Amino acid sequence: MATLDSAPASAGRLRVAMPSVAERVAQELRRQLAEGALIPGARLTESTIAEDLGVSRNTVREAFAELASERLVVRHPNRGVFVASLGAEDIHDVYTVRRFIEVSAMRGGGSPEDVAAVRAAVEEGKRAAAAGDDEAGGTANQHFHGAIVAMARSPRLNTVMAQVLAEMRLFFHKATADALFYQRYLPDNEAICEALEAGDPDRAADLLLAYLDRSEDNLAAVHGE
Fold this sequence. Notes:
Layout: H1 21-34, E1 43-44, H2 46-53, H3 57-69, E2 73-76, E3 80-83, H4 88-107, H5 112-130, H6 134-150, H7 155-175, H8 186-197, H9 201-223
Antiparallel strand pairs: 1-3, 2-3
Helix pairs in contact: 1-3, 1-7, 2-3, 4-6, 4-7, 4-9, 5-6, 5-8, 6-7, 8-9
């Protein structure tokens, strides 16, 4: 059975260009954060994660250090490592990053394949709404914003966005006490996607900017309560 610690023997000369095992563990944990599988305040256990991912505890410890530097987890002496609980003061900073990354990527437009990935995320959100599954709707919304940044075809921006999406899901956990939280954004996602499909990335970017402004205001209100 292949694990994250496994690597083909023939890959030796390419290994320098590949992410380390600890980086891949950190990537997996970011994905779980972004998709809502790990909630704020949850305790993360080295031994459990090491067993689940087929890696050593030292590797998990390295991944925790990377995530702690990104403020996605916190280490409490004599207690362990916990998923971070972000506060209202972090919201504006994260949305500032989102405006720069997402709106710029949108203005650049994308290939038909890129736009199809945005459309696929919109349709994923519609299916989740029809099923009354707000958690799946949240994941679809994350996929939508990830697909927007992916249009820039920049691995570095994708890496930054992976961290941002993980932080966003931590914010959203409190907001989703409202069961219709994600469904309210579906018409915006649809309008943005339609503008892209019509070949008008500037209009799509303007719609996205207004969307992010409203989203920041909504989250600030929730976390300011």
